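Budget justification note: compute hours in this period were largely spent on complex prediction jobs such as the one shown. Inputs:
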Amino acid sequence: MDISDNKVLVANRGEIAIRIVQACRKLGVGFVCVYTAEDEHSGHVRLARELGGEKSLYRISSYHDANEILSVADESGATAVHPGYGFFAEDYRFARRVMQRDRGIIFIGPSWRVIRELGDKINTKRLARSLGVPTVPGSDRPIYDELEAEELAYNLFNFQMEQGIKEPLVLIKASAGGGGMGIEEVQDLDLFRSVYRRVRNYAARQFKDEGVLIEQRIRDFNHLEVQILADRNAKSIVHFGTRNCSIQSTGLQKRVEIAPGFDPSSIQYNFDAQKLLDDITGYSLAMAEKVGYDSVGTWEWIVTRDGHPYLMEVNTRIQVENGVSATIARIKGQKGVDLIAEQIRTGLGEPLGYTQADITFEGMGIEYRIIAEDPDNGFSPWVGKIEDFGWKDRPWLGMHTHIPTDQPYDIPTEFDPNLALGIVWGKDIEEVRKNGLEFLDDLRLDGISATGVKMKSNIEFLRRKTPQILKF
Amino acid sequence: MLDISTLLEEIKAAPYVESSIRTPHCGVVQFNEELQPGSKLVGPHGNWREKPGTVLATIDRERCMKNVNALEKGELVSINAGLSGQFVEAGTEIMRVRHFLSREEVLQIILKQALYLFNAPEKAKYYFVPAVDVKVKNTGPKSVSVHDGMELFIISRMKREMPLRYSGPDGVIYAVYFSVNQNLDPGMPLIGVCPPSQVGQIEEVSMRVQTEWPED
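Corresponding output:
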């Protein structure tokens, strides 16, 4: 069966849904989209109507309802499901059900066994430790018991004191969370219980799972990632380099991503940065090979100021920031790498068709997450109507957004607040910084809330951070 | 001062509401063949409203059959019969029903004018803070006393949460107007608070509705 005989159900929304539809069109593969009432005016709905007509669009009650998504798949004749990121992207039960139901269809993502193995932060740590890959000290499974959590925190505080850390810190993370949501740090053991309860209650409300992870909080670090791609049956596994995602909000949510992860050619580091990048890439590939990884995935790393890497987790899905890796990658010397299209193509059964030796990198990339929020007020989200949104097209700029530019748009409050991703390329760090600032200067974004408050956004924060990229 | 008699007369002049029955999710819809326009419908009933209302239709999605039940006592006005056996999207109108207001609904309409309403300041989901939430669930909202400046709610927008303090007169929570995971627009009421000075009037409203509003 040729891959163009397939129809992909896009089980997601917003900019990722748009990018999946665009990738399907590029590959000559059919698509069908879903949307909820809140997303009626989203760009992905409009695009689906424009490119595929009413039969490529179905209204559902929730992006979290597997029954509805699969009933739409049957009704529309879809042969595959692309989960995007969030929602069902790392749910191995969903992936298994998609494949094993009576009318089995393809899950575009890793096989369910791989998701189960790596998608769980705890299993990932166990696997990493078994391969000698360093991980952050902390719990090996979600904790549901308050006394057990307190004991673990007590041990982690003591462990750090023994290491000579003067101000030990412990991190409490919602185990079912992601995207930096549901994470708080504790610096005083006496406060542990109240913070634990707050995170637990938040996790129960937002993720319907009270489990938390307790970890040592490593301070003064950079957050790096390694982008992996493999075809079905893990016959070929390659990497698409590293990213640096250290510029984050106070709640540890990413705001700027840069590829590659460090720039030893122009910035002085306290350690051998090139060796560090090679090491984490090697570790990531070794783990991918060990589990038979068979799709796109991201290995997330913490790197301390003295150059020690610790594996944080593996994201068994396409990530928001995939485009910044793609913008500096070349396959057999060709620009225009599209990791989502690669994921779909290989997910539908095509072989990778190239090796690591065919992948090269050129220049640097920055991805800016444009968000309606107030960085000066704890990054609190701004809710209202966007009345003006626009940018200047440039040869070095890629813009991904579901926000219409020709009509006002009410920001829904149900979902993550990303409005757009601006991906900027430059031949070196100086040029990419210059292009980044030019893009931000040109960007128009304005609106008003229901109570008359003028729109707030993080554009100024992004501008302030641009000169600091990749500096440790 | 609230004019209960006038309010009751106004409601009696238009005691019906017509509402739309929409599919809660997508799937293949089949109508209850016994129903026709004019058919009488029964809402949830039993001592604890544990018995579901009249089955209006069923929706099959992924071999999970789900009944669409009448939520109120009333009368069927129209059926979108052309959809029978068809795959429908979530939120599709399948019927219209007419319903005679119940005592409880009348009481709530009047209470909304008698109580102090604390409204949602912005579009968001709202939760009680955990300590209040437990109390509301275990012993009912009337067991919760509120005072100006009390941290009472959690506002959740885009998975980010922040506390919200109550502002208004001291009193007890007499009515809760939001549910978990419901998105509220700015200005929609969250709770109705009864200040101590109004307790007599609220009790009178309750008594008048009980005695003056006919219900089978």
